[in-house]
Amino acid sequence: MDESNELMRQRKEKLSEIRKAGINPYPHKFTPTHTTAVIRKDFDKVDETPDETHRVTVAGRIMTKRDHGKSSFANLQDSKGQIQIYVRRDGVGAEPYLIYRRFDIGDIIGVSGVVFRTRTGELTILVDEVELLSKSIRPLPEKWHGLQDKQTRYRQRYADLIMNPDVKEVFIKRTQIVRAIREMLDAQNFIEVETPVLQPIYGGASARPFTTYHNTLDQQFYLRIANELYLKRLIVGGFDRVYEFSRDFRNEGMDRDHNPEFTMLELYQAYADYLDIMELTENLIAKTVEKLHGTTQINYQEKTIDFTPPWQRMTMIESIQKHADIDPESFSKHELYTTVVDAGIKLEGDESRGEIIAELFDVFVESKLDQPTIIYDYPIEVSPFAKKKPDNPDFVERFEFFMCGMEVGNAFSELNDPIDQRRRFMEQASKLEKGDEEAFMVDEDYLRALEYGMPPTGGLGIGIDRLTMLLTDQYSIRDVILFPQMRPES
RNA sequence: GAGCCGUUAGCUCAGCAGGCAGAGCAUCUGACUUUUAAUCAGAGGGUCACAGGUUCGAUUCCUGUACGGCUCACCA
Q: How far is the CA of A251 from the C1' of B62 (A)?
């Protein structure tokens, strides 16, 4: 970390020269009057004649420097973009000019001057005052190729953000997506809440948890894999519409669409069922896309995706019939099993019929769902918190939606029958005992809440990272998470 | 967890059928008051990821390790 090379030695020398000249290289405060973006907007019409009424003060990082004897051009980058500055010895004075010439690419400076246009038409600040705001002692990547190395980009996201404006844009869009969803939910009288990250019993999803330990309580805790059960406790408590952007943690592999910590929006709406939630989902996402892009059709990795509601809807069985060209309903359990195994998937052998059907879906269908598609009616065995279909107890009122081959969300008519829920918990508990690391424990307190009575409720979870990938055309989840999980540097 | 690929200057990358380590940008010195990948003249900068092995000699070949990328498996 403390590697020293010639470039850094030179910069540290300049730093002490600057100090010796009586200049504080790290002053406390500076007050810009403009950002580069505002300058571009407000001074769009200026010509080549400097005019005192076009005076601005801006702060930013020196990104390029073109010194020419007694004058110098540089590009200053602030949070909104870049602007060229033109510093002349005659403009700032001989002493300050000499100091300015010692500044490096990467230094953060503040300048005052008037906006004009050079004879090549470039909007430029003719500077008469320069102040060093922060001396940079580590060289930035070069200007032309920038920072490419993915490892460095993810580990040193700060350098990535300095060098690659597109990256910053992605994260601004991520914020806009979250804000758009929040505004829409708020407008529909949903209440945003916060629930525990540290949970004594994990649940609400099938995943291996991270464990941690509370010293004072002398007890093991889990980082939440979902916040589902807490939000439904709040529905019991009389909040009819709640949501939370929940950072969840799952102790599993990492790849293009999995990071150990990720963000999920979960929402619950009392007196709604999964059909209502389907409609809510389509609208929520279509409107978010429209707010971000001005249209509901966007490109993702060369494919055009149309979010305009209503989306295609298929039951899980129908989707398998269509994409796998087999009819699970007419297959015996053994035939289903053989089909999956023949596709090269390892099974334990003790899977239930429903689990095998879900496996068929994963293997044959999921990757083919490019356009937004709602797959509904899931086998009960893979859906321990969803309500059974009134006419078929083997299936539940659950849907997931997919786009570009990725699962983006999951929803159901919430199971509110405490007796049935206890039975489902017991099944999970026995799986856990048999060594299924993704099964979970009985949550007695959650059952107690259901016993008080939970209204019929529809619930929804949306993977915010994946949604952001789609809406910002990013191939990897690492490109929509500022600090993706990495192994420690040696 | 498995397979394939990668790791060379601050950055982006060449190179090496095994024989003194290369370029561009960046940096330093000098010239230059409208340049914008500024230009011109000169200079410095390397544990070739790490550890072993083969060899007279390894950055290059072999083995292992670390980290990363892609694909697959698991998962959302």
A: 37
Residues A426 and A296 in one domain: yes
Q: What is the CATH number of the domain that holds A47?
A: 2.40.50.140
Residue A439 lies in a domain: yes
Total of domains in chain A: 2
Based on the fold, state whether residues A23 and A166 are members of the same structural domain.
Answer: no
> Cα separation of A449 and A9, whole Å?
64
Query: Looking at the structure, do residues A222 and A290 belong to the same domain, yes or no?
Result: yes
Per-residue pLDDT tens over the stretch A373-427: 999 999 999 999 999 999 999 999 999 999 999 999 999 999 999 999 999 999 9
C-alpha closest to that of A199 among A183, A186, A188, A210: A210
Instruction: State residue A490's pLDDT score.
Output: 67
- The enclosing H or E element of A406 equals strand A406-413
CB-strand contact A309/B, under 7 Å? no
Sign of CA dihedral A104, A108, A111, A115: positive
Please identify residues in chain A, positions 421-440, with a C-beta within 7 angstroms of any atom of strand B.
438
Q: In this structure, is residue A57 part of a structural domain?
A: yes
Alpha-carbon distance of A278 to A398, in angstroms, equals 10
Q: Is the CB of A68 under 7 A from strand B?
A: yes
pLDDT of residue A1: 38
Beta bridge partners of A57: A112
Query: Which of chain B's bases lie under 7 Å from a protein CB?
Result: 1, 6, 9-13, 24-28, 31-39, 44-45, 66-76
Closest nucleotide to A346's CA, by C1' atom?
A: B73
**pLDDT tens per residue across span A164-198:** 999 999 999 999 999 999 999 999 999 999 999 99
Q: Let me know whether A235 and A381 are in one domain.
A: yes
> Which nucleotide in the DNA or RNA is closest to residue A408, CA to C1'?
B76
What distance in Å separates the CA atoms of residue A275 and residue A413, rounded to the nearest whole number? 8
| In a shared domain, residues A210 and A94 | no
- Residue A467 shares a structural domain with residue A414: yes
Average pLDDT for chain A = 94
CATH number at residue A271: 3.30.930.10
Residue at A105 is within a domain? yes
Quote the pLDDT of residue A2.
Answer: 47
What pLDDT is attached to residue A3? 52
Q: Which nucleotide is nearest to A117 (CA to C1')?
A: B34
Q: Is residue A152 part of a domain?
A: no
Is the pTM here over 0.90, yes or no?
A: yes
Q: Using the CB atom, is residue A251 less than 7 Å from strand B?
A: no
A362 contact to strand B (CB, 7 A limit): yes
- Enter the ipTM: 0.92
The domain of A83 spans 3-140
A341 CA, B62 C1': Å apart: 40
Q: Among A140, A171, A186, which residue terminates a domain?
A: A140
